[in-house]
Design a protein that fits this description.
Length: 507
């Protein structure tokens, strides 16, 4: 009689399972507790589940077995499984949801993602500033799972005016003729261009004609069209604010432009450095500089307009000028010198980025070339969405929505300010008077802000390190978006950064 037969007999006499393979194993992840080292079952089981989450075997949203079920299958105590689940919850990887069970909510970014697809790997937290043109790393961070996302540039998406949009869409559809469902004007529908002219006149002081407006798929496409037209004119260098938007800079570089960084201080871009450089074009965010939040002051505006009038060209990215809380509005540069300013805006920061609707105004000499570039890019934006947006602008619904979200955004900003004061003592806050984000710097600190962002991401909270948006030197910092998260998540997210910072300084 061999040992297996002895085990079967002993098992049957004691009332235990007659199949030794069931005594210490589970179909879940094909776990075999016999593989655990002596005295190390808790660490072993934690590592096995964490690895399964990291490699995609347990994707975000999947549910772990009930603790009592897994304990029974592995023939271990229920307390051991409870301890394992608690460790994963403390790391921000799973979350208990009552009767819904324990659910995977974030992957540990210390392990490599699955390699079956040729997509760029998800980094172990935010990497060092991405190389020029390395937009894939930013996309990877955007796609990285987390419990709380404090990435900048996103409005309160839960506040999207669904009822108003649906009502406007029904009215638009009721009036459309069959011919309206054909190919539209690549420059954009006349109805939307007329509505945009009114919107910009009321809110940004810009006087324009509908024929000067080109409807685009957001500011990103506007920059792509402009680089194409400018390169055809022989332009190869563009000055950008430093710090400035990483995404905008990458868009220019993708279009083949050489980048000239120009420092930003409390008055905005340093116009003396700009004038001394050899750039023919400058990309600016003068109404609310990204990411510092400063407004281009009066003296700098005059100097900049003098530079433009002497032959320079300004690309004005008016990305979130409508979100003001504690300061008066400032007119757009386009309102002061239309012949030397390309003006780009969108509803991405007011309604939702998913709409992919924006506008571009260019000097008359560039208009035909931009329209031609737009035609060959996509034949124009979807007509129905344009007509719905026009209806919202003309009816006053968009202004009502703006007033509504301003109140919500202000309250969330105040919540984040209080949380930063409590959890990040010594941090300096910039740009609180307007916008959808705060810039936080740690002046005099010597740690790497990408390491801080990585440590917070391991706790399930995502934000962007300031160094991603900087080409020159400067203190470590963070760019924290507050508009898209409810107050409780803002408090929890900032607290996680406080925990990450303390761990980083203690290491």
């Amino acid at each position: 009689m061999d040992s297996a037969e002895v085990s079967l007999i002993k098992g049957s006499k004691t009332g235990e399972s007659a199949r030794p393979s069931e005594a210490a194993g589970s179909d879940f992840l094909l776990l075999d507790v016999g593989q655990a080292p002596p005295g190390g079952r808790t660490d072993w089981l934690t590592a096995r589940i964490r690895a399964a989450i990291a490699d995609g075997t347990l994707p975000v949203g999947s549910r772990l077995p009930a603790g009592r079920v897994l304990a029974a299958e592995l023939r271990v105590s229920r307390g051991l499984v409870t301890e394992v689940y608690q460790r994963l919850a403390d790391a921000g990887q799973v979350e208990g949801r009552g009767r819904a069970g324990t659910v995977v909510v974030a992957a540990p970014l210390t392990a490599a993602p699955p390699t079956a697809a040729p997509a760029p790997p998800v980094p172990a937290g935010p990497p060092a500033p991405p190389p020029r043109g390395g937009a894939g790393l930013v996309d990877a961070l955007r796609a990285a799972p987390c419990r709380i996302d404090l990435s900048p540039g996103v409005p309160d998406l839960a506040a999207f005016p669904r009822s108003a949009w649906l009502q406007a869409e029904r009215r638009v559809l009721a009036r459309l003729t069959p011919a309206d469902f054909g190919y539209g004007n690549p420059q954009g529908t006349l109805a939307l261009r007329e509505a945009i002219v009114g919107w910009l006149a009321r809110g940004r002081g810009i006087r324009a004609d509908p024929g000067e407006v080109v409807v685009v798929a957001g500011v990103a496409q506007a920059l792509g069209l402009l680089t194409q037209v400018l390169r055809a004119e022989g332009v190869r260098r563009v000055a950008v604010e430093d710090p400035g938007s990483l995404g905008a800079r990458q868009q220019l570089e993708h279009g083949g432009m050489e980048i000239l960084p120009v420092p930003v201080d409390a008055g905005g871009i340093d116009t003396a450095v700009l004038a001394a450089g050899r750039a023919q074009v400058a990309l600016l965010t003068p109404a609310h500089q990204f990411p510092t939040g400063v407004v281009l002051d009066g003296e700098r505006r005059r100097e900049l307009l003098g530079w433009a009038a002497a032959g320079g060209l300004v690309i004005e990215d008016d990305y979130d000028a409508e979100h003001r809380y504690d300061r008066a509005p400032v007119p757009a540069l386009r309102a002061l010198l239309p012949d030397a300013v390309c003006y780009a805006g969108s509803v991405s920061k007011l309604l939702a980025p998913a709409l992919r609707l924006g506008w571009l105004l260019v000097p008359p000499r560039m208009l035909d070339a931009v329209i031609e570039a737009k035609r060959y890019a996509d034949l124009g934006n979807p007509v129905l969405a344009q007509l719905v947006l026009a209806r919202l602008m003309e009816s006053g619904e968009l202004e009502r929505h703006l007033r509504f979200v301003r109140r919500r955004h202000r309250a969330r900003r105040d919540t984040m300010l209080r949380a930063i004061a409590a959890e990040l003592p010594g941090a300096r806050v910039h740009g609180a008077a307007a916008g959808l984000h705060l810039m936080v710097t740690f002046d005099g600190a010597d740690f790497d802000d990408t390491a801080l962002a990585a440590a917070a991401l391991d706790l399930g909270v995502k934000a962007q390190p300031l160094s991603w948006h900087r080409l020159g030197q400067g203190p470590p910092g963070l760019v924290l978006g507050y508009a898209a998260s409810p107050p409780g998540e803002l408090e929890e997210g900032v607290a996680a950064f406080g925990t990450a910072l303390r761990r980083l300084r203690a290491s």
